[in-house]
Prior knowledge:
It is a single chain. It is built from five helices and 15 strands. By secondary structure, it is of the alpha+beta class. The protein folds into two domains: 10-178, Glutaredoxin (3-Layer(aba) Sandwich), CATH 3.40.30; 195-278, no CATH class. A nine-stranded mixed sheet has the order 4-3-1-2-6-5-7-8-9. Strands 10-11-12-15 form a four-stranded antiparallel sheet, with helices on one face. Helix 3 packs across helix 4 (169-180). The chain is globular, with a radius of gyration of 19 Å. The relative contact order is 0.14.
Amino acid sequence: xxxxxxxxxxxxxxxxxxxxxxxxxxxxxxxxxxxxxxxxxxxxxxxxxxxxxxxxxxxxxxxxxxxxxxxxxxxxxxxxxxxxxxxxxxxxxxxxxxxxxxxxxxxxxxxxxxxxxxxxxxxxxxxxxxxxxxxxxxxxxxxxxxxxxxxxxxxxxxxxxxxxxxxxxxxxxxxxxxxxxxxxxxxxxxxxxxxxxxxxxxxxxxxxxxxxxxxxxxxxxxxxxxxxxxxxxxxxxxxxxxxxxxxxxxxxxxxxxxxxxxxxxxxxxxxxxxxxxxx
Length: 279
């Protein structure tokens, strides 16, 4: 599972309590000009557009929320929030994507529950969403597709950019509780979205070997590749190891069904740990 987080550091959240089409925001029946504007601005910023709603019973409301979340290279997290009532109000998202946003907001916890994209996400995600919202009602949202249906239930902490997978109600509460306390564990970790797959797998291996750490306590300093062999050097902040060398071997896993809805068998790329040592 490590090394499977979707790459990206900018998120656009759009609250939409109604049913979500299989292709998410693109499939909504909204004003075409506004939708095109939002999608073009998101593409230019390399942002991911995700539909969100609060877990549990859906309530009709006059104003819905939108947000632009950003994880900077420095490790800083920035957010810009707004509300919308009419389709044209969503044009503010395009403007917000042009500014860095504000510091100081708490993170957002996204639980994939997109049944029209893959029923596994809804069946496994909704109990996780309910359990997390009972503990952190202001932070938790159900969301549309974030990738990796086979790892449902999937949880993403944004703008931290941390993907977790194969969670249930009990393990999700424990995992997020540790995350919010600055202790990310490797057990359910899929990866950090600012890293590429082999780097994600290396960080997950480091967390499993040397124990939990904060989101920015480990930094990938160098990456070397020789065919399917990867060597990744990671720097750590005290009290964690100052330097860690991780070696991985990439290979294709046996063909399997990667999504509940997809009938075709496919082979996923897996990164197997071959060596890890503190330098």
